[in-house]
Inverse folding.
């Protein structure tokens, strides 16, 4: 029964496949098993691992494991041939941030390892396996008072991904340290000024590097300051010292301090409204 099914698969491969692109396939459930696709951060590659299938039969013992990949609804294209028994492949050239699907199968005994192609493929794992090479997350992230009183200034190190025009950074915002983060703006540069909070309000931020998928996040928190009073004028007469300054719209009250000398500590006089 197995030989008849194998012959059927070979016939389909010979008639319907070619050019290194997998367009149609009869699926036998005798391909490699326990397939895992993960992001290997140590090597900065997509790592594909599998176990040999004991039910595949002796026909593949001298053959090749063959890997195909596709993005979206496109046809599967050959990724690599791997010698039988290695059980691992690292795709170093995978574009980061993009999700791919992978298919894995056994290729029958071909006289040439590199020419092992569709007509020889006869045992597939019936499933497809998604995987993404992660983007580099921002490693430095700072949330601080921007131009005094204007908002919270966010800055981080930039990791542009070459060749991807849709690369951006996603900002998430929460109002408490254990609160729910909501989606903030997406920006194409490594800085942003958040002016959506009241003066002295504190915000909590996460920033991700994204294309189709996002990296792990960097985190920080910041507080918006107040505009300082400008143009302080000090005048005096026999009744005392008079202070005058520009009005700050966002302030509820002012605090006035005095000191007999610049080198002596200041003490609070009062809080005029």
């Amino acid at each position: 029964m197995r030989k008849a099914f194998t012959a059927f698969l070979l016939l389909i491969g010979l008639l319907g496949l070619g050019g290194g692109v997998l367009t149609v396939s009869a699926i036998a459930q005798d391909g490699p098993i326990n397939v895992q696709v993960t992001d290997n951060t140590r090597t900065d590659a997509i790592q594909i691992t599998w176990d040999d299938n004991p039910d595949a039969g002796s026909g593949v013992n001298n053959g090749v494991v063959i890997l195909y990949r596709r993005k979206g609804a496109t046809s599967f294209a050959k990724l690599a041939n791997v010698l039988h028994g290695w059980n691992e492949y690292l795709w170093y050239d995978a574009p980061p941030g993009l999700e791919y699907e992978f298919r894995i199968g056994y290729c029958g005994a071909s006289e040439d390892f590199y020419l092992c192609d569709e007509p020889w493929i006869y045992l597939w794992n019936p499933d497809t396996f998604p995987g993404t090479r992660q983007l580099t997350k921002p490693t430095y992230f700072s949330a601080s008072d921007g131009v005094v009183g204007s908002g919270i200034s966010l800055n981080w190190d930039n990791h542009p991904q070459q060749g991807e025009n849709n690369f951006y950074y996603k900002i998430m915002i929460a109002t408490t340290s254990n609160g729910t983060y909501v989606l903030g703006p997406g920006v194409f540069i490594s800085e942003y000024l958040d002016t959506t909070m009241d003066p002295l309000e504190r915000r909590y931020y996460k920033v991700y590097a994204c294309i189709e998928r996002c990296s792990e996040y960097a985190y920080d928190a910041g507080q918006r300051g107040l505009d300082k009073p400008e143009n302080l004028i000090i005048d005096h007469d026999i009744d005392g010292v008079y202070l005058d300054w520009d009005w700050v719209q966002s302030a509820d009250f002012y605090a006035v301090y005095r000191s007999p000398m610049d080198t002596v500590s200041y003490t609070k006089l009062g809080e005029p409204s």
About this structure: The two ends are 93 Å apart (CA to CA). The longest strand covers residues 99-107. The CA atoms of residues 130 and 189 lie 29 Å apart. Helices lie at 2-16.
